[in-house]
Design a protein that fits this description.
The protein is an alpha/beta fold. Helix content is about 25%, strand content about 20%. The two termini are about 30 Å apart.
Length: about 290
């Protein structure tokens, strides 16, 4: 299955033509041209203010780099690494590197990735992942996760990691009020960005209605409903909707869900961080296969 982002037009129709999957060969080591036409989408950096070329960004850290280098859908532009970082890449990657890394130091990596970035001596300049059509998402097994204005890239990355661990089909954010595909998001995902498609839709309410027409049962994770019970859904495909940090689901989003359900929390906390809630909810959903 291709590992690509969902086409933004998803929200405007019940189905779209598949985006092309052809990939240009990586440029020679040391070059960093702009993104190929039609591939930059809404994600990735921009050349303004001296950043990476538009449609590209710096991935950093061992696990994100290994996952990106092992993903045939990911176009790699450049690899920067310290001596130890390159040794770790070569030891862990089960294939030759696509290009010779440029040797650098930690100061240079911090200037590219941020002073607080845990880069582990590795940075990879890569294109944002290309588009994915709706039929590719709904054809994948597992529940579908939709995020209603979740804006923290680390939360989205952590949700992707849980989605990969529990076999979710995809994670869908909104075209606006959602983070771009960045190094911080990829680092929090710890390689899951290359496994679980991350996509964007223009209108979440219309997207939920489109999913209902495709026989998904749309569950909003929020207070005010019953308790989420994974065994109650039988063989129905579930689309799980999670709200923004602090605010929860918006009123219109709630109205377009088939049901509202919360997590069973007998302890002294009233709520969980959205990424933690996603992990617990996904585990609850897969219980139906183990009951």
């Amino acid at each position: 299955m291709s590992r690509r982002t969902i086409h933004p037009a998803f929200a405007r129709s019940g189905g779209n033509k598949k985006a092309p999957t052809t990939r240009a060969s990586p440029p020679a080591s040391g070059t960093s041209p702009g993104a190929a036409p039609g591939r930059q989408g809404r994600r990735g950096g921009g050349a303004a203010r001296g950043g990476p070329p538009r449609g590209t960004y710096w991935l950093y850290g061992l696990h994100p780099a290994l996952a990106a280098l092992g993903n045939p859908e990911r176009r790699i532009r450049q690899i920067l690494a310290t001596e130890d970082g390159e040794a770790a890449l070569r030891e862990r990657l089960n294939a030759p590197l696509p290009m010779q890394p440029h040797r650098t130091d930690r100061a240079r990596l911090e200037s590219l990735c941020g002073r607080d970035a845990v880069h582990q001596g590795i940075a990879v300049l890569a294109d944002a992942l290309p588009s994915l059509a709706i039929e590719d998402v709904t054809g994948r097994p597992g529940p579908l996760l939709l995020l209603d204005q979740v804006t923290d890239p680390r939360n989205v990355g952590a949700i992707l990691r849980s989605a990969a661990a529990f076999g979710a089909a995809a994670v869908v954010v909104m075209e606006r009020n959602a983070p771009d595909e960045t190094g911080a998001l990829a680092k929090a995902a710890s390689g899951a960005l290359e496994i679980v498609p991350l996509g964007a839709v223009v209108n979440l309410a219309r997207t939920l209605d489109a999913l209902k027409s495709l026989d998904f049962w749309v569950v909003g994770l929020d207070a005010g409903g019953g308790i989420l019970d994974g065994t109650s859904f039988g063989q129905r495909r579930v689309a799980l909707v999670l709200g923004a940090e602090g605010d929860g689901l918006r009123r219109l989003t709630r109205e377009h869900c088939d049901e509202i359900a919360g997590l069973a929390m007998p302890g002294d906390m009233e709520s969980l961080n959205v990424s933690n809630a996603a992990a617990v909810a996904l585990y609850e959903l897969i219980r139906r296969g183990k009951a």
